[in-house]
Amino acid sequence: MAVCIAVIAKENYPLYIRSIPAEHELKFHYTVHTSLDVVDEKVSAMGKALVDQRELYLGLLYPTEDYKVYGYVTNSKVKFVMVVDSSNTALRDNEIRSMFRKLHNSYTDVMCNPFYNPGDRIHSRAFDNMVTSMMVQGC
Amino acid sequence: MRDPNNQLHIIKNLKISVSNIVTQPPLPGAIRKHLSDVVSISQPAEGLVANVITAGDYDLNISDQSIKASVPWYSNWKDTLMELKESTLYSATTPWFESYRESFLQSMPASDHEFLNHYLACMLVASSSEPEPVEQFLKLSQEQHRIQHSSDYSYPKWFIPNTLKYYVLLHDVSAGDEQRADSLYEEMKQRYGTQGCYLLKINSRTSNRSSDEQIPDPWSQYLQKNSIQNQESYEDGPYTITSNKNADSSMLSLDGLDNEVKDGLPNNFKAHPLQLDQSSDPASNFDGADHIKSMLSIHETKKMNTGILHGACLTLTDHDRIRQFIQEFTFRGLLPHIEKTIRQLNDQLISRKGLSRSLFSATKKWFSGSKVPEKSINELKNTSGLLYPPEAPELQIRKMADLCFLVQHYDLAYSCYHTAKKDFLNDQAMLYAAGALEMAAVSAFLQPGAPRPYPAHYMDTAIQTYRDICKNMVLAERCVLLSAEILKSQSKYSEAAALLIRLTSEKKHALRCYCQAMQVYKGKGWSLAEDHINFTIGRQSFTLRQLDNAVSAFKHILINESKQPAAQQGAFLREYLYVYKNVSQLSPDGPLPQLPLPYINSLATRVFFGHDRRPAEGEKQAATHISLDQEYDSESSQQWRELEEQVVAVINKGIIPSNFHPTQYCLNSYTDNSRFPLAVVEEPITVEVAFRNPLKVPLLLTELSLLWKFQPKGSNSKDNEETKELVTCGHEMIGTEVISEFLINSEEIKVARLKLFPHHIGELHILGVVYNLGTIQSSVGLDGIGCIPGCHTGKHPSNIMSVRGRQDLEIQGPRLNNTKEEKTSIKYGPDRRLDPIITEEMPLLEVFFINFPTGLLCGEIRKAYVEFVNVSKCPLTGLKVVSKRPEFFTFGGNTEALTPLSPSASENCSAYKTVVADSTSGATALTSSASSVDFGLGSQPEVIHVPLPDSVLLPGASVQLPMWLRGPDEEGVHEINFLFYYESIKKQSNICHRVLRHTAVICTSRSLNVRATVCRSNTLEGEEGRGGNMLVFVDVENINTSEAGVKEFHIVQVSSNSKHWKLQKSVNLSENKDSKLASREKGKLCFKAVRCKNFEAAAQSSEKYTFVDIIFGNEQIISSASPCADFFFRSLSSELKKTHAQYNSLATEKQSSDDAVRLIKKCSEVDLNIVVLWKAYVVEDNKQLILEGQHHVILRTLGREAFSFSQKQEPPEMGLLKFTRPENTMVPTKPTVEQLSSLIKTSLQYPESFNHPFHQKSLCLVPVTLLLSNCSQTDVDVIIDLRHKATSPDALEVHGSFTWLGQTQYKLQLKSQEIYSLQLKACFVHAGVYNLGTPRVFAKLSDQVTLFETSQQSSMPALIIISNV
Fold first, then answer.
1. Which residue of A has its CA nearest to B531?
2. How many residue contacts between A and B have a Cβ separation below 8 Å?
3. How many separate domains does chain A show?
4. I need a surface site. Which of A105, B4, B531, B777 has the fewest CB within 10 A?
5. Does residue B46 register a pLDDT over 50?
6. ipTM
7. What string of H, E and C letters represents the secondary structure of B184-205?
8. B760: pLDDT strictly greater than 50
9. Which residues form the TPPC8 first Ig-like domain (chain B) (predicted)?
10. Which residues pair with residue B802 across a beta bridge?
11. Nearest C-alpha of chain B: how many angstroms from A27?
12. Could you read off the pLDDT of B1229-1253 as tens digits, one per residue?
């Protein structure tokens, strides 16, 4: 279960960001924001040719003392960042990958909503519930 | 050069620094000033802008705190930063810092613990032109000795006691005697040895500048423009000249790249990371030379010194000579001297080492305590540990290290420094230890080939020691600068930056970094982070006393739609208030600051002119007028506008003046605010300001009031205006209401109403609001956000912290969209709602309604009273009322005062004017007449003149007038708008009139439904035959549905009024004489109507109406008087209006129809109006009330049913839209059959029964008279056909048909209104019942070609009984 899940637009402003312990919200924001550098590095390191067939899942971006930060970038350069408690060893790479895939699907659903303006903050209840389920899951 | 171990050591690129002897150390203040000068000189002219590196989209501001906003993208930025790092630009960005660094290092005063910038040798210079140069040398030498060894002079520090002295004889080639110079030189050689003296021949007098100008100033590279030394030598000029000596100390610098030993040659300024340019000042030497030379003319010297050009007199050969001289000095004098000294020191050390190694160090350990006083016998023991005397043996090693360092023997230097460091540390001589550490690190760095890694921790320790233990910030700074350069050359930029940052005030840098980080987060939606940064910026700025920045940073947190929790917001707000308070305390007299909170929705600002509405007092009900409580409704405001236009048109004889604008008492965003509104002096102006609190914490505004600017009329000077602005409490001009407390809860929208009371005429400008912003301290903790210290100290009992500030009200007008230019661009019109013009006094009317009902039956008449009060100091006149529903009310006719004037007296009185009638006169009609003009109905029935006594209402006066109301005929709730119009007696240019609005709400319930038809009576009576007579049938139905309440209706009277007709008598069909109608009952009344011939002539000319009352009770209601006639005429006129509108819509048709049709139509028209007066018995609260009322029926057409209340028309079904053009068919309109049939009225006169003895005579002849009367106004041709119609087969079946005898067809012409009787004979053969109505009458207008021939009479059965006798 993630402690913080964020969806970041192509232009690096947050579309959606949610974290569980509310008192550390600011810290998570900073964590997510700094992780964007790593995402950027990883994506640009791949080079132009590889971009097309690259995998969306970027893997572990960087570990901090308490948390692990994972990243995922869609083809439209929308970034998903997930912060996971590093004490949680049950979460393997595969689980994280599937969580990201779920997140991506849900995000796609949000985008399919004709009343949603791309670029706006996400206020979808379905998306919210999905994120909540990922955060609570296994807790 | 050889080192102590006799190994050859190559010195590269040695530089020699030569300077004048100055006996006073430079003052720290002077140094500081010099440094700041240096920095400011290297600042580019535009200052900050050039110091901004634009990296990607970010502006990295190097020199200042100002934040440059931009919309960046991070990775771009990173790329550019990488580029920057590699580009040369990178090193060139901070010229000020480089020059600062140079100057700083140069201006280091020599200190005791190190010897690097102590003087190593002394050059003694004398001119050959002097009379006794040798004497001079002697004197100089003594002087030098005195300076070095006497205790008078502490400042110029000397490296070792026996300083190398180098004697230079300066000879001017052009002027001096060369032989003498040579001989002198020889003498010197003998005395001082060849290594110790030199003859320098240069040209110093002639200035063959023309040729020399090409030669660049040889000293320019070495001279510092404003070097302290220069200045000092300058000030101490006289002294220098007298002493006339030049000490030089040699310092070194080296450049690993250049192999030549250079001095006078242009040295390269290549950016070496560690360029210790301390030595770049050999010029002072020649300053000295100049001094010598200029002994004759001091002024010249000074000029030379300050002048830009040095050494202008030198020729190229002179340059070479100088170069040679320096070389000679270095190789012959200086280097051997250094070599010697090093060797000496080395020997000393080795000899000492034996001791220290074996015994000394041991004793040191044993007697470590006792050693300290031994060392510093009479020295002060300061924080830096102990101080050694200058010649202490511990210092010797340091001396040696320094020397080695100077001659670039870094290897040896390092080991010496290292040992020195150990010793010093052992002795706890921290200052010395730090110096040794520093230099050890530097020499380790400079070691070629770097056999050992750079000991960065040495530097760190040194810095720390300097700073924390020795408290010597200058040395610490030097150390940091060196260290930073070293780190930079090792590409350890971040470490270098960290060092520099640590050195300076960290807060400032933190602030700047936050400001730059702000650019990354700004406007990106990272709101929490943005808030956090803003908060930190605010707090840092505050601690650095940059209050303005702090305020603006806090402002940002508060005004953005914050997503922070409430507690956090509260903390932000409190901190903001605290900072703000500090700002305002700093400048208590400054202009009030603009506050960011709460938000003001300036578009929603409403302005109201006038007093608040008075609450109802008992029965009195004030006119609703207009108030801020009412929502704006464009429909109703349009209605009011129309009403005002109507009344203004009436006043101005039907024309609305071009400058007319509807009066606006309440201005909002929907009203037309392009003109300056007018306010009346002494009447309050209320401004409603819409506040919104975006925060989750409540905001408390205290002492909230309006801010305004007033320009009294007549004073146009600007200054006057300005002064008035500040006098917000100038109550003599404008009174300002202050709201003492105004609380806006979290995320609430709340309006505040603020009043101004203008006491003078002029132009008022409402600028904004001023208030104390505060918050209520909530009990919620601060949640990890520590408050600024002192935040809590001001805990006064109310727990409210507040600051005073203002917010301006700026209202943007509507967008203009009229011209093409306006359409293509975005322009906004002015909005003047806050800039009223205060005008002179105007009358002010207040209207109260007394006994004004809220519920009525349809058609009910009720009497109420209206009170008009003039509350101003001006008399008012021309009072009028205008309403869309004039049939609703009346003030009575202007004929007489009819009823008691006080409302209390009329309590039980009937609303009508009545007289007791003769009970016997039941069915008779009482006639009277009146004209509509008597009841105040002009061409505009909507505008009603209020009959004020004397037509003027004086100040303070009040008048009560009766007012009758009639419940509208429609059931339901009615809103009736009254607009009272009045004027001042004095004519004014600005305001011509004023208005007062009232909206009455009346709920009506169903009462009676009256239907009436009129038809011709067939009887032709002799006396009234002319003009004919008619029967009027009136159906009255009680349609009241309320179970309780109304019990029954009584028809008390039926009146007619018409110009031509009158009711004659009641034809009682039923025996129900008192005509009671219980619920759902229906009654039928029948009346006979005749033409009123006696009034005929008069009526047609003067529009007089004849009123006829037919009474059923014992009281006659005079229907021709108020209020009955009032309402009748009003309903008539409104009815007329309706029909008129209908006619207008058929206008084209009407025109095309010819006269014939009109004539034909006309004969079926009547204009009879029936008024049914009733009483209703109502039980209400166990009390029986009698209500009165009247219904009107307007009869126009014969035979057509008319209603008291026009039946609700079914809304027409939505038809399909047709997009075809209707064909303009020119079909001549034909009068309808019905209309034609009423042209001629026929009636048969015959005996009802006829006895005939058929057995005697088989044929029975009955005379029948056919009466034909022409109803039209023209001649009519009539054809009478007596033949039976053979069309219907039944007719043949008739058993006993009869025949007309004689002529079967007649052709007649009837004149207008003529009655013709035709004698006919009918012949019967059997007894029986016959229908005589068989004659068919055809009529046509005689002067018309087209024949509208129609059977006139749908044959009514005219039965005759023939009986056999």
1. A26
2. 34
3. 1
4. A105
5. no
6. 0.80
7. HHHHHHHHHCHHHEEEEEECCC
8. yes
9. 629-857
10. B774
11. 8
12. 555 555 566 677 777 778 888 888 8
Q: Please state whether beta strands B699-712 and B762-776 pair in parallel, antiparallel, or not at all (unpaired).
A: antiparallel
Q: What Cα–Cα distance (Å) separates residue B180 from each residue in B293, B338, B718, B1040?
A: 17, 33, 87, 150
Residues of A in contact with B73 (CB under 8 A): 11-12
- Which run of H or of E encompasses B460? helix B456-464
CA distance A119 to chain B (A): 11
> Which amino acid appears at position B1064 of this protein?
Q
Q: Which residues in B lie closer than 8 A to residue A26 (C-beta atoms)?
A: 528-529, 532
Q: Most B CBs within 10 Å: which of A17, A23, A26, as the mutation test of the B interface?
A: A26
Chain B positions touching A23 (Cβ under 8 A) are 783-784
Q: Could you say which of A29, A30, A40 has the minimum Cβ distance to residue B74?
A: A40
- Residue B463's alpha-carbon distances to B106, B395, B477, in angstroms, are 19, 21, 8
CA distance A107 to A69: 19
> CB of B353 within 8 Å of any CB in chain A?
no
- What's the pLDDT tens digit per position in B819-837? 888 778 887 878 888 888 8
- Amino acid found at B229: Q
**What's the rounded Cα separation, in Å, for the pair B674 and B658?**
16
The pLDDT of residue B508 is 67
**CA separation, residue B236 to residues B231, B244, B742, B798 (Å):** 8, 12, 72, 68
Per the document, the length of chain A is 139
Select from B73, B525, B528 the Cβ nearest to the Cβ of A26: B528
Query: B524 to chain A nearest CA, in Å?
Result: 5
Neighbours of B624 (CB within 10 A): 18
Domain encompassing residue A74 = 2-137
Residues 562-621 of B with CB under 8 A from A: 565
pLDDT of residue B389: 62
Residue type (1 letter), B1091 = R
Using the predicted structure, report yes or no on whether residue B111 has a pLDDT greater than 70. no
**Looking at residue A50, which CATH number applies to its domain?**
3.30.450.70
A14, A25, A36 ranked by CB distance to B525: nearest: A14
Of how many residues is chain B composed?
1365
Q: Residue A36: list chain B partners with CB under 8 A.
A: 74
Return the percentage of chain B with pLDDT > 70, whole number.
59
Q: Is the peptide bond before B830 cis (omega within 30 degrees of 0)?
A: no
- pLDDT tens for residues B263-311? 333 333 333 333 333 333 333 333 333 333 333 333 333 333 333 445 5
DSSP B992: S
Q: Rounded to whole angstroms, how far apart are CA atoms B147 and B133?
A: 21
Beta bridge partners of B1241: B1269
Average pLDDT, chain B: 68
Task: Inspect the interface and report whether the beta carbons of A12 and B784 lie closer than 8 Å.
Answer: no
Cα B1236 from chain centroid (whole Å): 73
Cite the beta strand spans of B116-266 per DSSP E: 121-127, 164-172, 197-202, 246-248
Nearest to B1007 by CA among B965, B1036, B979, B987: B1036
Torsion, CA A6, CA A7, CA A12, CA A14, rounded to 10: -70
How far, CA to CA in Å, does B1349 sit from each of B700, B1198, B1280?
Answer: 91, 20, 12
Which residues in chain B have their CB less than 8 angstroms from residue A29's CB?
526, 528-529
DSSP 8-class letter at B560: S
- Longest distance between any two alpha carbons in chain B, whole Å: 208
> Does B224 have pLDDT greater than 60?
no
Question: Do residue B528 and residue A25 have CB atoms under 8 angstroms apart?
Answer: yes
pTM of the model: 0.58
Instruction: Please tell me whether residue B1186 adopts helix, strand or coil conformation.
Output: strand
pLDDT score at B86:
44
